[in-house]
Amino acid sequence: MIILQAAGLGKTLAGRPILDNINMTLQAGEKAGLVGANGSGKTTLLKCLSGQLEAEHGNVMLGKHQQLGFLEQLPPRDPEETIWDIVMGSFSDLLDIRQRLSELEQAISSGRGDVDMLLKQYSLLQDEYHDRNGYACETMARRILAGLGIDPCQYDLRLGELSGGQKTRLDLARLLALSPNILLLDEPTNHLDMSAVEWLEEYLNDYSGTVLVVSHDRRFLDRVVNKIFELRERKLRAFEGNYSAYIVKAEAQDQARLKAFEKQQEQIRETEAYIERYRSGIKARQARGRQSQLSRLERLQRPAQEIRQHSWKLHSRQDSGEIVINLQDVSKCYDGKSLFSGVDLLIRRGERVALLGPNGCGKTTLLKLITAEITPDQGTIGLGSGVRPGYFSQGYENLQHERTLLEEMVYDCNLNLQQARDKLAMMHFRGDTVNQRVGDLSGGEKGRLA
């Protein structure tokens, strides 16, 4: 049964066509992935499907009695609310029934009013509460929060005290607690540690509703989805199977389309040569006939090629000393809570180091200590001779949204115009795209720019 359908969707943003004649159907219970290059329009398509953006062309049809859940449509909450209250707010309709049942119990026990009518109302409400698993609200909330790495000791934290990553996980918890018929998820694994990603995989596999998820995580898509939609050059293609199956099928389809295009081009060249050779003379009539056939020919378009990143290397502008980073007995607290203490770390020139740990353990804080954005409560942090750190942050906070891409590179990186264009081209920002505003870029494009 089709529960969500898009027909002929077209959308333009900041003067740039993003979607063109997009057709999509989602069946009940289907788990689908939406893939494509950064800036191809994946988030825009989700927003059009959810109604957050209105397409200039086409329409979206949602099945009767279907509830659609999308993170960006969640209503804002009071910064003073706690994590627990916010997640339990997703069960507000069930909590209202629970409150009404309590009121009816009091009225029945006191003998006020028409007891038979009250008993009938109570029975109907109790059946609805039972059918919707109202008794398991708290259990479900604790299960979701635990799966996303939020411990019971954090339940009383207020929204205003949370980091950006914690707020993202809390919003995901709110959405999962709502348990809509259709889940639209845009990069849900961002800000999740590995154990939380694995939990989300299991949750979505057990989820009885329909899922459409945008992700660049191939492993996640392989484990969760059974269909892939590919958005490329403003067009949408659908493939049955997980991500690995999509790679094989898309490559085969691209090769077949390219072969058909090249064969048609060869036929066009031969026909044009024949027409030119016999335009006048004994075969002029045949030449005119072929010219007529050529003018009616439906010409194939060269298949759009997937954007592939250039192979390039990062070079340090100057050699550093043997010791690059040296942390000794470093400690840091936030709001009276110790993130870590007694940290010793020595990194030497040429080493590649991965920093792992659960959400909220202080990984980003440690990086900010090393880059001197914040200071330790205790201990020392030393950078070696000639060391100049470069920091790629989760939220791309250092980007200036009012600048163009070219201005950002020139002013922030101390480059001339040609050097800036060359660097941008390495990340596939070419032509007029270098004059776009940073604020108009998609999340993935901002990551490439950063």
CATH architecture classification of the largest domain: 3-Layer(aba) Sandwich
| Overall average residue pLDDT | 88
- The percentage helix is 25-40%
CATH topology of the largest domain: Rossmann fold
Q: Please tally the β strands and state the result.
A: 12
Placed side by side, the strands forming the largest sheet appear as: 5-6-7-3-8-9
**Largest sheet composition:** 6 strands, mixed
| Strand content range | 15-25%
The CATH class of the largest domain is identified as Alpha Beta
Alpha plus pi helix count: 14
Structural class computed from helices and strand pairing: alpha/beta
CATH homologous superfamily title of the largest domain: P-loop containing nucleotide triphosphate hydrolases
Poorly predicted runs: none
Helix/strand order, N-terminal first: EEEHEEHHHHHEHEHEEHHEEHEHHH
How many structural domains can be distinguished in the coordinates? 4
N→C terminal distance: 43 Å
